């Protein structure tokens, strides 16, 4: 199975433009997550979804939005990109229900540069 | 606040043993995870500890002391392919992972 796929692999985006990062999992996991990873910092949670139809804010949600219309897909949208959103974005999923400790599995990442 | 501390970089020799330490402070605690991340790739799961003690999994072992807010990852018989970053993450009372910045492990022949 593919596990988790992300698209695009990398992107250069002009400041002020919008963009959607795509994430799809084929493991039927309940929970999905979006993280950003910046040099010298730990992974930081942007948004999460414990189950289809629900979403929640993580540590750094400003400037980002998500939706979870079905179990498999969890797109992340930047409405108006700014240079500080230059980062590597990882999508992850786990078979957790709320209040569970299952392992998170990560997609390959999207490297985004905002100029 | 919540915080994870781990060394930025470590160097070890092929065939040797290395211990990567991690200390954590979180609001509540629901376990400690270790992930491996090769350069340019996604993190991959290595281990999970929620009870005090040592968990052994092949060449890798992970230890947890909840009273000390401390964990370590022990890698034995180091191989060149073990060159990677090792990420420590603690799960807080909301079942969210709080991540350390990672320890870059350099293996020399």
Calculate the terminal CA-CA distance of chain B, rounded to whole Å.
40 Å
State the separation between the terminal residues of chain A, measured CA to CA. 36 Å
What series of H and E elements makes up the topology of chain B? EEEEEEEEEEE
Please tell me how large the radius of gyration of chain B is: 13 Å
User: What class would the helix/strand composition of chain B place it in?
Assistant: mainly beta
Summarize the helix and strand pattern of chain A as letters. EEEEEEEEEEE
Tell me the greatest interface.
A-B, 21 and 22 residues
Q: Specify the number of helices of chain B.
A: 0
Decide which structural class fits the backbone of chain A. Answer: mainly beta
Would you mind describing this structure in some detail?
The complex is a heterodimer of chains A (115) and B (109). In chain A, strand 4 and strand 5 form a beta hairpin. Chain A is built from no helices and 11 strands. With 115 residues, chain A is mostly beta strands. Chain A is globular and about 35 Å long. In chain A, 35% of the residues are buried. By secondary structure, chain B is mostly beta strands. Chain B has no helices and 11 strands. In chain B, the strands form 2 sheets. In chain B, strands 2, 4, 5, 9, 10 and 11 form a 6-stranded mixed β-sheet that branches. In chain B, a hairpin with a 5-residue loop joins strand 9 (84-91) and strand 10 (97-99). The mean pLDDT of chain B is 96. Chain A binds chain B through residues 40-45, 48, 58, 90, 96, 98-101, 103-109, and chain B through 4, 30-31, 33, 41-45, 48, 50, 87, 89, 91, 95-102.
């Amino acid at each position: 199975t593919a596990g988790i796929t992300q698209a695009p692999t990398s992107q250069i985006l002009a400041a002020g433009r919008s963009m959607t990062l795509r994430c799809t999992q084929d493991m039927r996991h309940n929970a999905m997550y979006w993280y950003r990873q910046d040099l010298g910092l730990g992974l930081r949670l942007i948004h999460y979804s414990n189950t289809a139809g629900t979403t929640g804010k993580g540590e750094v949600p400003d400037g980002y939005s998500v939706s979870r219309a079905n179990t498999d897909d969890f797109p992340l949208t930047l409405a108006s990109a700014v240079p500080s959103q230059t980062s590597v974005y990882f999508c992850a999923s786990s078979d957790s229900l709320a209040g569970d400790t299952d392992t998170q599995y990560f997609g390959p990442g999207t490297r985004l540069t905002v100029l | 606040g919540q915080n994870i501390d781990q060394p930025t970089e470590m160097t070890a020799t092929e065939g040797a043993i290395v211990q990567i330490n991690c200390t954590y402070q979180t609001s509540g605690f629901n376990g400690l995870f270790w992930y491996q991340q090769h350069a340019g790739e996604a993190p991959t799961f290595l281990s999970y500890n929620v009870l005090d003690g040592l968990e052994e999994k092949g060449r890798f072992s992970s230890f947890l002391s909840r009273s000390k807010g401390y964990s370590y990852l022990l890698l034995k018989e180091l191989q060149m392919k073990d060159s990677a970053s090792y990420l420590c993450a603690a799960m807080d009372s909301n079942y969210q992972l709080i991540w350390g910045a990672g320890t870059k492990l350099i293996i020399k022949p």
